[in-house]
Design goal:
Organism: Luteimicrobium album
InterPro entries: Bact_Sigma-Reg (IPR052016), PPM-type-like_dom_sf (IPR036457), PPM-type_phosphatase-like_dom (IPR001932)
Domain PPM-type phosphatase: 310-536
Shape: elongated
Low-confidence stretches: 539-551
Number of helices: 14
Strand content: 25-35%
Number of strands: 21
Oligomer: single chain
Radius of gyration: 40 Å
Structural class: alpha+beta
Mean pLDDT: 87
Protein name: PPM-type phosphatase domain-containing protein
Helix content: 25-40%
Distance between the termini: 102 Å
Keywords: Hydrolase
Length: 551
């Protein structure tokens, strides 16, 4: 063997690549005897053998490959040693559509090309494997200056690229799950949706059980159409809190859960990445993040349910007792998203002689302060009505009272007195939405007796009258029934006339309160709703008009 080649091989020591180079019959191949190789090829081969960095030298019409031990690792378990002294195109046939044009560019122009973290789907270890490489292809020239080969200096960056991508998946999963305002099912659904989009997950399935024996709930979600593993295995892993492998699926217990909550995550890894230590750690982190999110969500659900229950009990305690069956019907509904008591209220006051007083009001804000003001104003209004004052005089008394109680300003109130034998309605309003009368032949807004908000009205209050006919329904309500964000109050009142009036006219009195609220606020109400309905028909008459009695 030529002395230069022998000297170059000494740098390889006793490695397998050194042995292949020493024993290969170069003279019988396309490169010929190493003694005849051009100086630049000799220099490139010497560089290849003297460095531990992955290097492959390709030369001649077939771009015959000569590589070192660093490059050998890139060949996986299936291509080496057959790749040594083999054509570059044959060895990397599965990625030639991507790297072949780069070789052609170097051979044609003599200019180097450079790629960073280039994704390549290789078949180097018996399966299609996702890989990434940073590399440079440089021209190799013969002694006449003609480009005859390509020098490839490369670094596999697959581990770095995959680790960064998995970190992004975990981060995006955690961000999405902890932003969910729903329950455990919404968390499970969002988790499998995120995992379905991950390049590192072939399929996933989530199983969560929570609640006691009487309230046991099982939440389930999966990518694809069929289960990955039997449900019994998911339950076994969830309760046993140990990882179990079922074929190509690993089932992980969800961590960070309360004792009354168990859960499991089944994951089938993407087929283009080996199920190695890094992949197992990735799956374990997914299970941990999902467990954290489920635990936080269920804890928040319990807290919300408790606070909402306390809020509703406190709010209802501040409202008057349910009225006996008859002409008066009331309905109260707290804001869907609120955990605080609000400032909406109603009151129906028997005044004697078949006369009734009714007040509907709305204090600004939520919380105990608003509820306190509401309770004080309701009590004051009831006392004023019981002393024989009419609606306008009652509101004037509330004006004086509100000026002495900071925070009661800007309250809206409508007050009315109904004389049942005559059907005469007397009313006055302080910045409150118009009362609505719904009859068999249409509807009418009561626009009289208007005045400013409590404590801000300087002139004497006025009142107006309206004669209710048998079969009429009088509806008084707070603005939560009609207001929508970005929409004028006028539009909300028009919707009540077109959508709500038919409900008031036709629905059964046992359900109309809930039906009216649902018709007006199908997506839920961002504010409390209090409303009162008076049925002017004789007691016991079948008019189809009414509202559900307050619970």
């Amino acid at each position: 063997m030529d002395t230069w080649f022998d000297d170059a091989l000494r740098a390889l020591g006793e490695s397998e690549c050194a042995e292949l180079a020493r024993t290969h019959d170069w003279a019988a191949g396309p490169l010929g005897d190493p003694a005849t190789w051009p100086s630049e090829l000799r220099a490139a081969v010497t560089l290849c053998f003297s460095t531990r960095f992955p290097v492959v030298v390709t030369w001649g019409p077939e771009l015959t490959m000569i590589y070192n031990d660093g490059y050998r690792a890139m060949l996986g378990s299936a291509k080496h040693p057959a790749a040594f002294a083999a054509p570059f195109r044959v060895v990397w046939a599965e990625i030639w559509d991507q790297v072949g044009p780069l070789c052609d560019e170097v051979l044609a122009t003599g200019k180097a090309v450079w790629r960073v973290d280039m994704p390549l789907l290789m078949h180097r270890s018996g399966y299609d494997e996702e890989t990434s490489f940073t590399f440079s292809y440089s021209a190799l020239r013969d002694d006449d200056g003609q480009v005859r080969g390509v020098l490839d200096i490369a670094a596999e960056t697959t581990a770095h690229v995959v680790a960064a991508r998995r970190l992004d998946t975990i981060s995006e999963l955690a961000t999405r799950l902890f932003a969910i305002e729903g329950g455990a099912q919404e968390v499970a659904d969002a988790a499998v949706e995120e995992l379905a989009a991950s390049a590192d997950v072939g399929a996933a399935e989530v199983w969560v059980e929570h609640g006691g024996d009487d309230e046991r709930e099982v939440v389930h979600a999966a990518t694809g159409t069929g289960p990955l593993v039997p449900e019994a295995l998911l339950e076994q892993v969830a309760r046993g809190r140990t990882v179990v492998e079922h074929g190509d699926v690993r089932v992980h217990p969800l961590g960070a859960l309360r004792r009354d909550v168990t859960g499991a995550l089944a994951v089938r890894a993407a087929p283009t990445r080996p199920l190695d230590h890094g992949n197992r750690e990735f799956q374990a982190l997914l299970a941990s993040k999902l467990g954290n999110a489920v635990g936080v969500t269920l804890a928040h659900e319990r807290e919300v349910d408790h606070l909402r229950s306390v809020s509703e009990v406190l709010q209802r305690a501040m409202l008057p007792d349910p009225l006996p069956p008859g002409r008066w019907h009331v309905h109260y509904e707290p804001a869907e998203s609120s955990l605080e008591v609000g400032g909406d209220w109603y009151d129906v006051v028997p005044l004697g002689g078949s006369r009734w007083g009714v007040v509907v009001g709305d204090c600004v804000g939520h919380g105990l302060e608003a509820a306190t003001h509401m309770g004080q104003l309701r009590a004051a209004a009831r006392a004023l009505l019981l002393t024989g004052r009419g609606p306008a005089a009652t509101l004037e008394g509330l004006d004086r009272y509100a000026r002495t109680v900071p925070g009661s300003e800007f309250t809206t109130v409508v007050c009315a007195v109904v004389d049942e034998p005559t059907g005469e309605l007397t009313y006055s309003a302080a910045g409150h939405p118009f009362p609505l009368v719904v009859g068999a032949d249409g509807h009418a807004w009561l626009r009289g007796g208007r005045g400013g908000l409590l404590a801000l009205h300087e002139r004497p209050r006025t009142e107006a009258t309206h004669r209710l006919r048998p079969g009429d329904a009088l509806l008084l309500f707070t603005d939560g029934l009609v207001e929508r964000r970005g929409e004028s109050l006028r539009a909300g009142l028009a919707r009540l006339a077109s959508v709500g009036a038919p409900v008031v006219r036709d629905a059964d009195r046992r359900e109309v309160g809930e039906l009216l609220t649902r018709a007006m606020r199908p997506d839920g109400a961002p504010d409390d709703i209090a409303l009162v309905l008076y049925d002017a028909a004789p007691v016991g008459a079948s008019t189809g008009v009414g509202l559900a009695a307050a619970p």
